[in-house]
Structures are given as C-alpha cells and as structure tokens.
Amino acid sequence: MASSAQSAFPSRNYGTSLGKLPERSMGPAFGSQQQRENQRLERERELLERERREKEEQNQLSEEQREEIKEAFTLFDLDKDQKIDYHELKVAMKALGFDLPKAEILSILQSHGSPSEPTNPNLPHHPRLLLPLAQFQTVMTQKILARDPRDEILRAFELFDEGGKGKINLNDLRRVARELGEGLEEEELAAMIDEFDLDGDGAINRDEFLGICLQ
Q1: Closest CA to 97 of 77, 122, 70, 68
Q2: Counting beta carbons within 10 angstroms of the beta carbon of residue 165, is it exposed (0 to 12), middle (13 to 18) or buried (19 or more)?
Q3: Which H or E element spans position 69?
Q4: 13 SS3 class
C-alpha cells in the first residue's frame, strides 16, 4: 500500500537572518571626535587672531608708552615673580593714570588673570588671581588707546595747579620749574603766562591749557 511519508520533525526556516552580525557604524563616536577636533582648531584660530590684534594695538603706542607700562609692572611686582596681585595691579594702574574702582580691577583679574600656585604643599592653599606681564601689557594698551587725550592733558594741568584753584599762575610755574631742575628766569616764566593768558587774568585756566596742548 502506498502512503505519503511525513517528516518526523517540523520544518524550520533557516533564513538569511540567521547569524547575521549587526552593521558597525562610525556615526556618533566619529562625529563626536570630529567635533572636538573642529573645536580645538577654532580655539587655536581665535587665539592666533587675538594675539595678532594685541600686537597691532601695542604697535599703536609709542616706544615711551610701552616702556612706561613695563616699568610700572616691574616697579610694583614686589616679589619679582612676573605676576601682580590685586593690590599691586591697583597701584601700577594708578601710576599710569588709571585710578579704577575695586569692582573694575577685580573684573580685569577675572578676565585676564590666573590662579596662584601653592608654595607649600603641607599648608592650606587659598588661590589668588594674579596678572602676568603679557596680560598687563594687553590691558594697559587697550586702556591707553581708549583714553580721551583731553583727560591726559587735564591730569597734567592738575600737577601744575597746586591747591586745585582751577588756574596755573606764576607761582605754580616757578614751583614746577624748580622741581624739574629747569633754570628759567622770572621774565621767561612771566612771558609764558602772558603768551597764553587769553582772558588777561594773569593765569592760565583749564581751557587755555587745553588749547596750548591741542594746537
């Protein structure tokens, strides 16, 4: 008798998915690495651009002004570590004609300074913000370039004007000439007053002094 044979085991489907490994992708990890590299290159470009601008700004100062900035830093870098702290920065800037409030000086340190390093590993360290010479030169260059020349002239006027009278008289000129070691005769000093005393009051006021310096 003929009969149809049936398989003793159920059929199983061995499709192409059996043992298939997941595809490897360079996506997220590679993209993150590339992004970090782009950010690094961008930071380097920004640094080079900032250094170029700072050099151009310093070139706008006279050699005398650049030397004054360096001398002020050296003079008030009391511990000679090529860095100045808050108090040293304040007096150095004041010596250059910038008497800034505490908040502005702290802002300069926060923007351009760096934390101090511990001097004794066995003692607690309370870091202070310090300003290196290069950053001091950058800050002072920007301050000087942004300064109104009239302010500089009026500061010079105040050095002549003893007692804050608002005028420079013959006694003031005599005192300054003596302090500077200039051997000017009385007639020469009087002639200087007469030449620039436009209102005929025997003294030089602020407007007259500005006119002398700005002409």
Answers
A1: 68
A2: exposed
A3: helix 63-76
A4: coil
